[in-house]
Design a protein that fits this description.
Blueprint: E1 2-3, E2 6-15, H1 20-27, E3 33-35, E4 40-42, E5 49-51, E6 55-60, H2 69-78, H3 84-93, E7 95-103, E8 109-110, H4 115-124, E9 127-133
Parallel strand pairs: 1-8, 7-9
Antiparallel strand pairs: 2-6, 2-7, 3-6, 4-5
Helix pairs in contact: 2-4
């Protein structure tokens, strides 16, 4: 089985009452992107304005080619606090996930996660969310990039 061609990973913390500055202070790192419920958000491509329905704090890792979720998890978690009490507090108040896009160039590509990467997510209460994209040129319409 060939290694997955490309991977994208973003830690997302989501909640109605989420205050991005509080998350930043407690985690010790600035987000790639953040929003508070009620914020006006302008679409990058369309310029359309929408109102944020919930608060969100996101931290993206650089895409990896070939895919390497272990390294992306290490890079994201390495920027953030190791204090599990902080993570436990977040897990009780917010939805947290590592949203990952896995992009194939051909059929039968795969990826594995190490016990260390799984432990890093699990001990912090972070759910793993995988979106897997078919190789280009398949019968289906080619998917757009995932929304992070």
């Amino acid at each position: 089985m060939a290694c997955i061609s490309r991977s994208a990973a973003t830690l997302r913390i989501i909640g109605d009452d989420l205050i991005p500055d509080e998350i930043t202070r407690l985690l010790g790192a600035s987000p790639t992107q953040a929003q508070t419920k009620g914020d006006k958000i302008v679409g990058k491509k369309t310029g359309n304005v929408r109102i944020a329905r919930f608060g969100m704090w996101r931290l993206e890792a650089s895409d990896c080619e070939p895919g390497d979720l272990d390294d992306q998890i290490r890079l994201i978690c390495g920027q953030l606090t190791d204090d599990l009490a902080v993570w436990e507090s977040f897990a009780s108040r917010y939805k947290m996930d590592l949203f990952c896009g896995l992009f194939m160039e051909c059929g039968n590509e795969g990826i594995s996660l190490s016990p260390a990467a799984l432990f890093a997510l699990g001990s912090r209460g972070i759910e793993l969310d995988l979106d897997i994209y078919d190789p280009p040129g398949g019968d289906e319409e080619e998917p757009s990039e995932p929304q992070r």
